[in-house]
Structures are given as C-alpha cells and as structure tokens.
C-alpha cells in the first residue's frame, strides 16, 4: 500500500469507456470542501445525506465540465464509513478524466489522491462496515461468471458466511469457557459432568465445522470452476466431444489422426458449475516434432486437471494406451472418468454402465449422463442446495482445515482412556483449551477479526463467582 489509510481518495467508479453514466467517487475527511469547490458553495450547501442533488460540475474557472447528480454520504453512513461524495455525470472517457482531474486539483488542499485498487472496500473493512469475508465477496460478486456464483457471492456479502463463522466462534468460546471453569474449580463436582459436556460440545463443533468445510469446498468449485482435460489416442473424438459440450465448433475436427496440436480451452457452464474443458493432442508415439510438442502440452494439461476424461473409440477399446504413459502425471486429487465414444457406430446403448460412460460426440447421445457424472464427481449433486454453498477462497479452505486439525487435537486431549472408569476426568484439559483457542484464531482469520480472546468475560457471564 503506497498511500496512507487516512488520505482522502478519489477515483472513477464506473468502467472506462462510453456509457450513459459515469461516476467519480471521493471518500475521506474534508470531502465536503471538495464538493464546495466543484459544485460551487451555494449548491454544496444544499447537499443532504443520501439525497440526489442536481448540480453543475465546475472547473477552476467556473466553466461547466458536466451537468449531473451529486450524492453526499455523511460518515459513518457510507460504503467506506467515511464522508463520501459521488458525482454522477455522463459516461464519456474524456469528460470523466476532466472531472477526475478537477477533483484532484480542487482536493489538493485536503491531500486528496487517486485511490488504489480495492481501496474503497479496504476502508469499508478498516472502518468495520464489513468483515474480510464480505470484502472478498464484493470482489467475487463483481467477478462472478455464472448466476449461481453471483447469487452465492451476494449471500456472502449479506453476511451469511460470516454469520456461520460467528456461530462457530461463539460455540468455540463456550466450550473453552467450560474447560477453563473445570481448571479453575478442580475440586467441584462440576468436573465430571463438565468433562462429558465439553466432549459433547467439541464433537458437535467438529460436525458443524465439517459441514461448513463441505459447503466451502463446493463454493470454491463454484467460484474457480474445475479443469477438465480430454485425453486419449488420436481420432477417438476428443475435439468432437469438446465441440458437443460447448455447443459449437470450437476445435477443428477431421478424420485425420493427429489433428489437434495446440491445446484448445473453453469454459462451459453445466448447471451453474464452470468447467474449463481442455482439448489436447492425441497421445501416441510420434516422430513429428510439432505433434510431439502438442503431446507435451497434453501431459502438462493432465497435470493441472481436476478431472481427466479418458476417451476411447468404443469399437477399439484395446487401443486405450498406445502412446506415452501419462498416469504418473495425474494430480493427487484428480479423478479419471472413462468415456467410450462413437456408440452410434457400434450400436452400444448410451449412458453410464459400471462406471464407464457410453456416448456419441456426433449425435449427442449419452452426453446428459456425462454432464451428470461430471457434476457428481465435483460433489455438486450432493450440494446442500445452491443456497447453502459458501463461495470460498483457498485462504478460507486453509483456515477451516486448520480449525478442523485443532478440533481433532482438542478431542484427543479430552478423550478418556478406555480402561479407566467412564467418567474419568479429561486427560489434558489445558492442552484441549489451547487447541480450541488456536481453532478460534484460525477461524477468525477468515473474517479478519483475530481478536484476543474474551474468555474471562465468557466465564463470568456463565458462572456466578459470588455464589
Ligand atoms: N460416428 C462418429 N464419429 C465421430 C464421433 N466422434 C468423433 N467422430 C469422428 O472421428 C474423427 C476424429 O474426431 P476428432 O474429434 O477430431 O478426434 P480427436 O480425438 O480430437 O483427434 P486428434 O485431434 O487427432 O487427437 C472425425 O472424423 C469425427 O467426425 C462419434 O461419436 N461418432
Ligand atoms: Mg482433436
């Protein structure tokens, strides 16, 4: 970050180019003085918070740059939590540049500078208007490539994901408070009951965190899509299958084996899930230098793929692996799906049998089964409905997975030795409490509120010490 978070900032908020409306937005201390300079003192005095005011935008000599609407937001009731001025003018690149330049010039006295990318949202986070997960959801909503992803981002922005995390965090704090109480009052009868209660709570927490993880994993797929590589011998119909899935002629198809050399990639929306399908050169031993380069790229594509669709010509399944071996290139979590193509020539029934798909890229037979299988492999068919999916990022998955690890460790520290009496107190409650604290910290990273714990307050509110 170059500038300070204290500087007032300004930027064109709308996309560059010609459009009906273009908006210049400024945020920070002293912005009202900017309004007085650009709109004229009299008009600026008429600004009311969150009301549209018709105004002329004036240059330093009082000449009209544009005629539009000014909206004034008073801190803290704005997107950034600071004073904000929005100037909605005409959306032409030149007029927008003039207006932005005028704001920078008029705002020199208050230290106004150009905003950096994401800086308005960063301020919204710093000023507690939204948490980190919501700030990320803003970017995800803007970047969403499918309606399902957009809806999910919008729910995260509304605080659904953050709310689920907050519930987990308070469950964690409660469990810790119980353990701390056991430690503080070791002689009390509370202890036996407490140990069992804590174990139950930790078990429940683990189930809840697992559930959030599942929803977040699905969301990550929804957000980033899956990479699907089409792999097989030359002429089995890989390019034809890509075209059939894409619904148009994306890749060149010929009866000549070795047609595809460059990798051809298309993103295809199947039931709201984005699949980046990669067509590659057919695998075979070849002396052709160009074809060999294509085959090298195929091997790279296999290494990157989440799913490999392994195509064979249903009439010659024995020709399945004529070329270089590629299995060792598969990623650890990659899934292979065997697809028998050209059933229109063999008379085999299309569909899914014994884990193999039977399709015809030419007639489209069996493609519905293939799409369903792709969704199944992606976990999308078991989705707790699109509503329950959190559009998670890698950072979130990582934090949740560390939370799971700490909870598992906590459960181990709380487990009783089987040969001892069933109500034997927890083995290492201090260590369990520490694991719960670490679990809470990991979770707090997602919303950006890795706050020091308020564990004492929690204890006092639950146990009356004076009693
Ligand atoms: N009858 C029939 N022909 C097919 C089918 N799929 C592909 N073909 C034909 O098979 C030939 C090869 O198809 P491509 O899609 O180019 O095969 P490819 O696997 O991409 O081949 P390379 O790029 O050379 O590795 C073409 O003549 C296609 O029309 C199918 O399902 N049925
Ligand atoms: Mg091809």
Structural class: alpha/beta
Order of helices and strands: EEHHEEEHEHHHHHEHEEHEEHEEHHHH
Radius of gyration (Å) = 30 Å
Q: Indicate the multimeric state.
A: single chain
Quote the distance from N terminus to C terminus. Answer: 53 Å
Strand content: 15-25%
**Biggest pleated-sheet summary:** 7 strands, mixed
What low-confidence regions span 5 or more consecutive residues with pLDDT below 50? Answer: 418-423, 451-467
Residue share in helices?
A: 40-55%
Strand order of the largest sheet: 8-9-7-10-11-13-12
Number of strands: 13
Bound chemical compounds: guanosine-5'-triphosphate, magnesium ion
The average pLDDT is 86
Overall morphology:
flat
By DSSP (H or I, 4+ residues per run), the number of helices equals 15
Task: Tell me what the structure shows.
It is a single chain. Helices cover 44% and strands 17% of the residues. With 467 residues, the chain is an alpha/beta fold. Strands 8-9-7-10-11-13-12 form a 7-stranded mixed sheet, sandwiched between helices. Strand 8 (264-270) and strand 9 (273-279) form a beta hairpin. The chain binds guanosine-5'-triphosphate and magnesium ion. The site of magnesium ion (MG) has 6 residues, from helix 9.
